[in-house]
Amino acid sequence: MEKLDRFIKLGTAGEGTYGVVYKAKNKLTGKHVALKRIKLEKFYNKGDSEGVPSTAIREICLLKNLKHSSIVELLDVMYSTDKLYLVFEFLDLDLKKYMDFSKGPLNKELIRSYMKQLVDGMAYLHTRTILHRDLKPQNLLIDKEGHIKLADFGLSRSFSLPTRTYTHEVVTMWYRAPELLLGTKIYCTGVDIWSLGCILAEMILKKAIFPGDSEIDQIYKIFRIMGTPTEEVWPGVSLFPDFKPTFPKWKAKDFKDVIAFQDPEQEALLKNMLVYNPAQRKTAKELTRCPYLRKAKLTAPNMDAFPADEDGDD
Ligand code: AMP
Q1: How far is the CA of 284 from the centre of ligand 1 (A)?
Q2: In degrees, to the nearest 5, what angle opens at C-alpha 293 toward C-alphas 289 and 298?
Q3: Is the CB of 93 under 6 A from ligand 1?
Q4: pLDDT digits over 27-62, tens only?
Q5: How far apart are CA 251 and CA 73, in angstroms?
Q6: Are 298 and 147 spatial neighbours (Cβ–Cβ below 8 Å)?
Q7: Cβ-proximal residues to 123 (8 Å cutoff; 6+ apart), any chain
Q8: Euclidean distance between CA atoms 147 and 299, whole angstroms
């Protein structure tokens, strides 16, 4: 762990599912990094009981080879018996904080540009069979120039998805795909497409589209808008472990009645993502070709409302 001495901690950047994230500076290069500390005993997959879970470390080290402009770069991995430090490139802000602070609706072209970058990054990862499984605005990081990057990709393969964070907060289910909520153990890249669809809806609405406060409330929030799924719209749905024939039967609404779309092509994109049957959800690769995203240009967010960097280091 002596490599850790190369960094000076400047403060806390945030708190995630697996642990605290520090803003730090590399003493040699002067560059800022995000240091994510994960206390291992809580999160590695149970079967792996001897000290450092070697499979997790191996898998995480593989993530260092991922290079894409829409993926937060993992620069280094450091570990001891009980702690893991992941060193990431540092970005100014996460999308949740940006949406919370910014006044009024998000700029139409900013949403388009963000979606384009996220779909591109996701296509890159999905082609390499790397899933996120827990995508949310908190782990989409943005900078002043208009870039947005996916953080935490690949981690859920190494750690089981906890229901509570390391500080015992409930892990949000707002972005979780219906097949996961209905208890499937077999899932695919479609789970991330669903989450990204929820994030698109949230950028337009400026509030979450399915803000459930428990697993069943989460399922019902989805059913109330998209209708209770039937065998016709989603063959096999009734066989999922947590599907109950006694679920209330809601009729599907049109997304137009719930979301004021900024243009018809944006509506078409959402309709290709928030689809019950994962097999019918478009893949990230297919989405890169949609007319809405092909018109995207890098657009800077409005950062005027944000307090300047407080660590006094710049
Ligand atoms: P996460 O564990 O990725 O959900 O991170 C928790 C919070 O820490 C995020 O919501 C961000 O505010 C912050 N954070 C995570 N990674 C970075 C990073 N690379 N650069 C800046 N802030 C980060």
Answers
A1: 24
A2: 135
A3: no
A4: 999 999 999 998 776 655 555 555 556 777 877 888
A5: 43
A6: yes
A7: 283, 284, 285, 287, 288
A8: 8
Q: What is the pLDDT of residues 275-298, one digit of tens each?
A: 999 999 999 999 999 999 999 999
Neighbouring C-beta atoms of residue 130, cutoff 10 Å: 21
Q: Is the CB of 159 under 6 A from ligand 1?
A: no
Exposure b/e, 8-23, CB count within 10 A at least 16 = b: eebeebbebbbbbbbb
Name the catalytic one among 94, 134, 152, 192: 134
Ligand 1: residue of 33, 63, 92, 141 to mutate (most ligand atoms within 8 A of CB) is 141
The pTM for the full model equals 0.91
d(CA 293, CA 111): 10
Residue 239 Cα, ligand 1 centroid: separation in angstroms?
A: 37
Q: How far apart are CA 158 and CA 237, in angstroms?
A: 28
Question: Is 5 among the catalytic positions?
Answer: no
Q: Which phi and psi angles does 32 have, rounded to 5°?
A: -80, 145
Give yes or no for a contact between 125 and 47, defined as CB atoms under 8 angstroms apart. Answer: no
